[in-house]
Amino acid sequence: MKKKERVLKIIEELGTLYPMTGCTLRYSDPLQLLIATQLAAQCTDERVNIVTKSLFKKYRTVEDFAGADIKELEDDIRSTGFYRNKARNIIACCQKIIADYEGKVPDTMEKLLSLPGVGRKTANVVLGNAFGIPGIVVDTHAKRLSRRLGLTREEDPVKIEFDLMKIVPKDKWTIFSHMLVFHGRAVCKARSPECGSCTIRPYCVFGNKKTEK
Ligand code: SF4
Question: Would residue 139 show up in a list of annotated catalytic residues for this protein?
Fold first, then answer.
């Protein structure tokens, strides 16, 4: 079966398994999602959601973040880890949004990438979930699963993203990313993938190799 055909089967199966997939970060507008995604680097979404619950009450606008006292913001986000870098980037990012984009989070990859601390992963999360513009997010789960599934041989997340863009239908880019995350957490775990109970095993290179042994 060709990669494109396998991807369609995988999407079909995972769609049945996870009909309610979506972004697990809590947000109510593009700015909140941008901040939450930056905080989620090297941190769990659960922890970020705890932190942002009070953070978004304290800092309500892009101006609030842009004018934040860095030490205070560091304390506010400390438990997400790498808090000094994150605080510096969040403030610089919001200052640039005000200076260059009239205080509104931009909705193109190019403009999002111009913001401090924003890479393709964060940009794709924001595009796909806040603006409905398809984007493939390659996080640790998507990287592991797409390699095990035999959809890419690349290690670099950006190269993986471009490999997946060639074989996943564009209107499925965002949902496909979510499906990989859900399946990575539930079944295709990093240390011990549960291939025996995995419904996409027939379409998985790694799973099939295990069968042959
Ligand atoms: S068959 Fe195994 S390796 Fe393949 S997706 Fe399922 S759990 Fe992961």
Answer: yes
pTM higher than 0.85 for the full model? yes
Rounded Cα–Cα distance for residues 148 and 192 (Å): 12
- Nearest atom of ligand 1 to the alpha carbon of 187: 7
Q: Which residues line ligand 1 (CB under 6 A)?
A: 145, 148-149, 187-188, 193-195, 198, 200-201, 204, 206-207
Query: How buried is 204 (Cβ within 10 angstroms: 0-12 exposed, 13-18 middle, 19+ buried)?
Result: buried
Selection from 169, 165, 158, 84 nearest residue 122 by Cα: 158
- Ligand 1 geometric centre to CA of 202 (Å): 9
30-130 CATH choice from 3.90.1150.10, 1.10.340.30, 1.10.260.40, 3.30.160.620: 1.10.340.30
Mean of pLDDT over the chain:
96
